[in-house]
Amino acid sequence: MAAESFTWSTAAALVAEVRAAVGARGAEPVLAVDGATGLGGPLPVPGLAVGAVTAQLLAARDLVGAPLGPLTLDARHVGLAFRSERFARLDGRPVGMGFAPLSRFWRTADGWLRLHGNYPHHRAAALAVLGDDVETSAAAWRAEDLESAVVAAGGAAAAVRTAAAWREHPHGTAVAGQPLMSLRRVADGPPRRSPLDGLRVLDLTRVIAGPVATRTLASHGADVLRIDGPRLPDDRGGLIDTGVGKRHVVLDLAAADDRRTVEELLGQADVVVQGYRPGALDAFGMDPAALAERHPHLITVRLSAWGTAGTWRERRGFDSLVQAATGIADVYGGPEGPGALPAQALDHATGQLAAALVLSALARQRTEGGGWYGELSLAQTAHWLLNAPAEPPEPAVDVDPAPYLLDLSTPEGTATVVAPPGSPAWTAAAVLSPRARPTWRERVAG
Which of 12, 209, 248, 268 has the largest count of CB atoms under 10 Å? Predict the structure, then answer.
């Protein structure tokens, strides 16, 4: 892959690794990159972002049989897309997901801890351990002890570790032993040519990474139906950004009637994307092995915070917590304390890579048949980023977002979102419950 800037050798390395992991064939494509992402810093985040988007776009080309190159990508657009939640508006009012006051670094007796308190149940768990005076209470704890206590209470937290400490941690060792992503055939069946335009994607994801994957598929024309449970709904304002191009319904997997509806949807679906903790959906028969047995035609891709191997595989996690645990927050820190990536790049990159997995599985299903299963995680993406070849930092840029924004009409007003980089623009805003119905759209013949 040709590189026209010092940054893009990292992007080329990521694309090559992804294409090898999914079994893509053909010559290395030529990549031409214009501009800078605005995501510069100590780690090669610009290359991660451009590489993840490129891998996804090439997988789409593979699927439809389009020539692989050359591919031209606007790095400014990629950088804005990786910070899309900052630019989401409804009639000019910001609606993208930010951080609640509790969701920040807290000094402990021996270092720092990152809490995540955006969701009420996670906030309640943290406060059950720390009380109302979080700052004073946290300062009396060792960071790893507080991490364990909050997690045991049902909350979400991570002690800030160095990259070296994470490598020695049992779960860090487990992550290091896993590939960036995996894809394998898990069920027998004849070749299946699911169309990209009208592809039926059942979306069982939350927060950012999974929704980024499915909104990316929606930009390619997929009919994405996202299912939310009735007890822990996502923020409706945030769905303006993460849910663009999709339809959202509320169904209770614990209720027999709703469970039958989901089973009917699965029977007609082409793809399932899961973004819950491994094990969280198993009781409802939604684990990948059970899905492959009941619906062997499906492509299932699962992404999670910590992966499916190791002691933390069932632990709650978010981009900010993975940054803290793996050493990224330490790398970006300074005298005042830990720091953070210039975007929730683990979420966005993993989402783009998950979309690439889906598209690659579809391509292989067309020739090899069968059902397919792929998986990846934020922790595996973080491991890749921390071990990517060091490069000079990208120069600072000030990008005007206006040319990259897209206005879409909704019953509540005009939704403004960052258009998808490289793929077709969405034609519809997020359709939220109760306006959406739990049925697939009719496929267009031909």
Answer: 209
